[in-house]
Amino acid sequence: xxxxxxxxxxxxxxxxxxxAGAITGGWQPIENVNNEHVREIAQFAVMAQDMSFKGFPLxxxxxxxxxxxxxxxxxxxxxxxAATIGGEGTRAKYYEAIVYENLSNVKxxxxxxxxxxx
Length: 118
Description:
CATH class: Alpha Beta
Keywords: Protease inhibitor, Signal, Thiol protease inhibitor
Helix content: 25-40%
Mean pLDDT: 83
Number of domains: 1
Distance between the termini: 53 Å
Protein name: Cystatin domain-containing protein
Pfam family, one: SQAPI
InterPro entries: Cystatin_dom, Cystatin_sf
Radius of gyration: 20 Å
CATH topology: Nuclear Transport Factor 2, Chain: A
Number of helices: 2
Structural class: alpha+beta
Order of helices and strands: HEHEEEE
GO molecular function: cysteine-type endopeptidase inhibitor activity
Number of strands: 5
């Protein structure tokens, strides 16, 4: 094998392997869900949902796990624990929140739905 062909083959393999971890458009796990920015996204989702929620106030308890997706901005898919406060006491439930954050850091709640299991 000629040295040029060998180097080209090695460079091609390195390029392919370096992109294996970050797939544009694919959901990737968030390693640290206690990161301040991730908690801000979760808090935004709960507060945005709470504004349209009829009944007792909804408050963020914790971020259980999360994923991010790089598009023209970032989609966050977070599993959160949130509690209603009032009535017969505090009741925490799990929810899946999807938030889109554009390149100017403007956030939009895409969906917020209750989960039966985590």
